[in-house]
Structures
1.
Amino acid sequence: MSATRVNADPAELAKFSELAHRWWDPQSEFRPLHEINPLRLNWLSGLVAEGSGKGLAGKAVLDVGCGGGILADSMARAGAQVTGIDLSTKALKVAQLHALEAGTPNINYREISAEALAAEAPASFDVVTCMEMLEHVPDPASVVRACSTLVKPGGWVFFSTINRNPKSFLFAIVGAEYVLNLLPRGTHEYAKFIRPSELARDVRDAGLELRASRGMGYNPLTRRYALNDDTSVNYLLATRKVVAA
């Protein structure tokens, strides 16, 4: 790690480290991640396939803030050569153990920040994902810039996070954490939520071009998640690195 300040909140790292051993239990606090993973994987794979015709297969992929490796593992199984990075030692150990036990091919985990890896290996990846992570760091724009540096010109960068408005407070915090108990209480802080316009600005400033956006909703009656056009709470952005003329 460099001598510069690491873009991480120790309290956030501790929060997820305490739950790390439950990461791969689909009935645990991480159940929502297991349930939304096929949705986000299919969406990003489809967009990548539009340009290459083969989705993630054969692509060099980086998952920033990989945690226990739910998305990273599924992308590796889709044929990508995946690197997962995180600053939670315990979560990475869980990810590594799962990959070993499951025999997941083509996957490597490293304890390093996005900014440090960007300085070490710029323009090294065809696809970069940063899911459910920006709302947990002190400086989200710094992570966006690092993701842009890490992806190859013309490559894809995918983000997902939570909008900041009264509805998102009601749904993502009150509803998800206190009423439906989908997430542990204290998982999110409203002040750290990011409006789509704010993330779109950071994306443009980092040399990325916004290509698509989707919202993600939860139906408490059917207990199912679905992608939709409503970005008022959870949302995903698909971007591509601008190719210099």
Note: Helices lie at 10-18, 31-52, 70-77, 89-102, 114-120, 140-150, 166-179, 196-205.
2.
Amino acid sequence: MDFYKLTIQEIKRETPNAVTIQFNVPETLEKNFSFLAGQYVTLKVTLNGKELRRAYSICAAPKENKIQIGIKAVNKGVFSTFANETLKVGDLVEVSVPEGKFNFTPYPEAQKNYAAFAAGSGITPVFSILKTILLEEPKSTIVLTYGNKTPEETIFHDELIELQQHYLGRFFVHFVYSQANVADTFFGRIDKSVVNAVLKNKHTETSFDAFYLCGPEAMINTVSGVLKENNVSEKDIKFELFGTAPSPENQPATEGHTSVTILVDGEETTFEMSQKQTVLEAALKHGLDVPYSCQGGICSSCICKITDGNATMKKNQILTDDEIAEGLTLSCQAVPTSTTLKIDFDNV
């Protein structure tokens, strides 16, 4: 994973516990930081002698020609708290090149109807996608359903209202508040009743071509389930998790060891690892500079390919069955189940 030191150009307080950070990208690096709507970058900092990496979605549209991310402070979140309270304009931060599979490519002649469901900071990649649709697919429409506690805690609240007024008939936003009763909004969370109200009441005459979901795993599971009940094909539902629950089932119980060979940056390294470890944990322990970010199986930074042997993932919400059949795996979730294992990070 390639990192570059970028200067913070602007920090904007979006809500009491969320900021957007814009980086200055030198002209010599503009090609490196070209991106698709919905992609993310990984930030790398050292705090108290420990290296931390976190993935944050780009909330700007590619046409806006800027790298801007949104960071919401979470309870006991070391990195997010540091970003909200300590980072300042002029600071240098190591930033990776953009990546990610939750993305959108516009087609200027397309005439489609899109819907998006987001909760909390899950708005950040969706904001990039919806602005791209509005800017680059002038015949298309998008409906956003967006859940938060209150209007004051809603990232991009005013900008979304401005966009709806500017793109009348093309962009519709439905706010959902769990701790505030506000006229012309939904009260509660994004649940089955809200999804059905949007599809069958607010936009009953609209046939949607694709759905973009981003937020907590429970919300994504709920929305996906209701969409499928409404005969939406799984291939038309795109999602990215912002937080995932632990999954005790599918945890391999093994006491063995594996001889693992890892190819990264053109060099092969072989060593012994415990089958209780993930491939990523073992690689980092042995000092290998393998790509990673969230370490929780919710981004795609650490994807690699199994070229020999077998491993199983403790959790997977990203890779399709076809990709797994091709040998792709998430190194942060993959634990060996064979005595030898070969992993390729270079040719993915």
Note: The mean pLDDT is 93.
3.
Amino acid sequence: MNLHFFKTVFAVALVAGAGCFFGCSSEKAPEVENNTLVNVSYDPTREFYSNYNHIFMKHWKEATGKDVKITQFHGGSGKQALEVVNGLEADVVTLALEYDVNIVRDAGLIENGWVKEFPRNSAPYTSTIVFLVRKGNPKKISDWNDLVKDGIGIITPDPKTSGGARWNYLAAWAYAEKQFNGDEEQVKGFMKKLYQNVLDLASGARGSTNTFIEERKGDVLLSWENEAFLSLKDYPKDYEIVMPSVSVLAEPSVAIVDKIVDKRNTRKLATEYLNYLYSDEAQHVAARHHYRPTNKAILDEYKEFDQNVNLITIEHFGGWENAQKTHFSEYGIFDQIYEKN
């Protein structure tokens, strides 16, 4: 063999060795921990998460010695789910209902079984649906049957984009089922009359609140309980809350967006962010923002919550997949009964 051959072999071996030195180690290079977090949430949680973020940042600093930066995005729950699917990089989603989280799951961003990842089916707080009426209740609205009367103007968001609006719809449906002993045609007739009285369908709950409060449209706002209490706090002389005889146990869902936290190396941070929602401190913050704590002992401390109301769960409708398919999918019952003005 000539000298040229040996020089060539040596050069190839040297390059290969150098490549292995820089990139072929049996140990992975340590990953840099990311201390930024993005929470994509729905409309009425703005104030709650603004306050929760402060107590969480303090908790994280005490536990790890590190600061964390948290960014929030808010809008109609269904719309927010689609934003994440279409590229908004969320470490966690805190949406109005399980179905909207499943939209993100079905896009391959969240792993199956997310609903069991945190306690109480990954719902750290609950709410329900109430009526917000103008002070003195001039239209004498006391229950769902009053909403189908002539001359009643209703404000509620669009069930196609708002999770709260779907809870509103299902609460009304459950009441009508009880009134008409499950006769579906009569229930559909009731729902058709109710939506004929709807003056405006905003894309999210906060938009509907603004329509009712700022623009002063309508006689009654179908509202998250926490959103209604917030309006009452801001305008105590202008509004009052009416609790209908039948409502729903609204269970907003939280989940880690697995594909994003693995990409951004934020899984540890995101997990603790959602875990800490179940802490006593966070449960008190939820209650002060008029969400119902899932910790019963803490819930009992807050007398504003009517615990005797008849709250229907989503299981009454066969779970969210069935409710969505039956009522809110294209050509579902909502499309059948709602006629745009």
Note: The chain is about 45% helix and 15% strand.
